[in-house]
């Protein structure tokens, strides 16, 4: 195991919270991810489904969770919670290495009834005939552009065909309610992901100079992640110099960094399935020009003011509106917008969007764009990014600064406050 497993108590607590939200006499069924195919017999590296992980801590394919809190158990074993895992044997161990034993799966998840996945349907059927409601999992992300079927999707088709007269319920809204507020163990995992990300950024500050290639920087980041027990990038990293920094989802990272250009990097480490999400923008040659510094400090001022808005009671819509106003006045200060034009602008299409075209924040957790709804009121325990940017295509200059913030009763806690961001600090570290 590359990461230190999170205590099974977290996952037991998560299931208890879900059980409390289910209707009476209901069963919930959640599947792991597939091993995603490439072609021939090749697969992508396995990444667990965030819901299955959240409820079980199991990081293995072909795993299924069945929760039936109102199940009337027989004397022999409890079916209130069942974890199905892929059977392991000597042959599998020779080819694939170690898979979880039933004892390990019990320890990891806190679930006492662990059964091989090959017995899933025969165990499930009699339980379903007792239950009235069936909760199934669907992807309710508003930006969902996924075209492949998940195991949850395939199971849903089978289940609804086999058991057409049950009451079917959506699991996704409940998972949203639970996952949006983080438990302390989750915040700890996020902090570790952030600490690894911090190390990688400092390594990059040492490495970057005129003439390096964007992919060389990506390699430095990856090197630091892996040696610190992260298994992967939390998402495809963006390493874009010059004009590339203005391409919001630039991930080719294939150009040479030129003297005088700024370099925008957006990357984060995964740790124990939790994602860090950092953006920093630095001068390739280690010194900001006056113009670069002016734009950079405008973004930094907006970021600092926006962090202060990440407090209980606020929400994403109002946050974006406020940040839009801050951005507007900074863009006027930079000579990019005209005061009169702003006064006369169509409020539905504010002019600042020409230079700042994305939202300020998103929830962060096991998914980098984690569960959380647009109008959901901020509560203590939520973790959001704060990532304003100014992208001036005509100047081939793009700057984004992104920190990860924990909302608390006492105010926002910047989990990335130790990661260098001030102009003087960046210049100093790049010239050591
Ligand atoms: N790295 C993805 C994002 O910042 O939303
Ligand atoms: Mn982000
Ligand atoms: Mn990011």
Automatic annotation (TrEMBL):
Needed cofactors: Mn(2+)
Catalytic activity: Release of any N-terminal amino acid, including proline, that is linked to proline, even from a dipeptide or tripeptide
Main enzyme class: hydrolase
Listed CDD domains: Prolidase (cd01087)
Any single biological process term in GO: proteolysis
One GO MF term attached to the UniProt entry: metalloaminopeptidase activity
A Pfam family annotated for this UniProt entry: AMP_N
Aminopeptidase P N-terminal domain boundaries: 6-144
SUPFAM superfamilies (UniProt xref): Creatinase/aminopeptidase, Creatinase/prolidase N-terminal domain
Superkingdom: Bacteria
Record-stated family: Belongs to the peptidase M24B family.
Listed name of the protein: Xaa-Pro aminopeptidase
């Amino acid at each position: 195991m590359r990461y230190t497993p999170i205590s099974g108590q977290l996952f037991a607590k998560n299931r208890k919270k879900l059980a409390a939200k289910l209707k009476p006499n209901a069963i919930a069924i959640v599947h792991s991810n597939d091993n995603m195919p490439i072609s021939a017999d090749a697969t992508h590296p396995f990444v667990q489904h965030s819901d299955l992980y959240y409820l079980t801590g199991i990081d293995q394919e072909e795993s299924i969770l069945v929760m039936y809190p109102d199940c009337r158990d027989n004397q022999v074993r409890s079916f209130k919670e069942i974890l199905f895992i892929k059977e392991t044997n000597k042959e599998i161990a020779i080819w694939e290495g170690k898979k979880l034993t039933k004892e390990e799966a019990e320890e990891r998840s806190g679930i006492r009834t662990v059964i091989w996945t090959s017995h899933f349907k025969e165990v499930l059927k009699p339980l379903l005939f007792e239950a009235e409601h069936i909760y199934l999992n669907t992807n309710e992300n508003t930006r969902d552009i996924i075209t492949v079927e998940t195991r949850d999707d395939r199971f849903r088709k089978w289940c609804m065909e086999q058991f057409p007269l049950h009451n079917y319920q959506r699991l996704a809204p409940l998972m949203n309610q639970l996952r949006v507020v983080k438990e302390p163990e989750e915040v700890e995992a996020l902090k570790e992901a952030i600490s690894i990300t911090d190390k990688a950024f400092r390594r990059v500050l040492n490495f970057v100079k005129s003439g390096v290639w964007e992919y060389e920087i990506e390699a430095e980041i990856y090197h630091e992640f892996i040696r610190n027990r992260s298994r992967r990038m939390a998402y495809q990293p963006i390493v874009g110099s010059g004009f590339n920094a203005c391409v919001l989802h630039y991930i080719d990272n294939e150009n040479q960094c030129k003297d005088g250009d700024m370099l925008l990097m957006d990357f984060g480490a995964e740790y124990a399935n939790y994602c860090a999400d950092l953006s920093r923008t630095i001068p390739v040659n280690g010194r900001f020009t006056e113009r670069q510094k002016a734009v950079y400090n405008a973004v930094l001022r907006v970021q600092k003011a926006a962090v202060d808005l990440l407090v209980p009671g606020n929400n994403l819509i109002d946050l974006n509106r406020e940040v839009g106003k801050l951005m507007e006045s900074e863009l006027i200060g930079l000579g990019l917008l005209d005061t009169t034009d702003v006064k006369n602008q169509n409020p539905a299409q504010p002019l600042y969007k020409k230079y700042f075209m994305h939202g300020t924040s998103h929830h962060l957790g096991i998914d980098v764009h984690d569960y959380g709804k647009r109008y959901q009121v901020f509560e203590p325990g939520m973790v959001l990014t704060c990532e304003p940017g100014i992208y001036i295509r005509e100047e081939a200059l793009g700057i984004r600064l992104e920190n990860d913030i924990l909302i608390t009763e006492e105010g926002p806690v910047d989990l990335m406050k130790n990661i260098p961001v001030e102009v003087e600090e960046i210049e100093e570290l790049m010239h050591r």
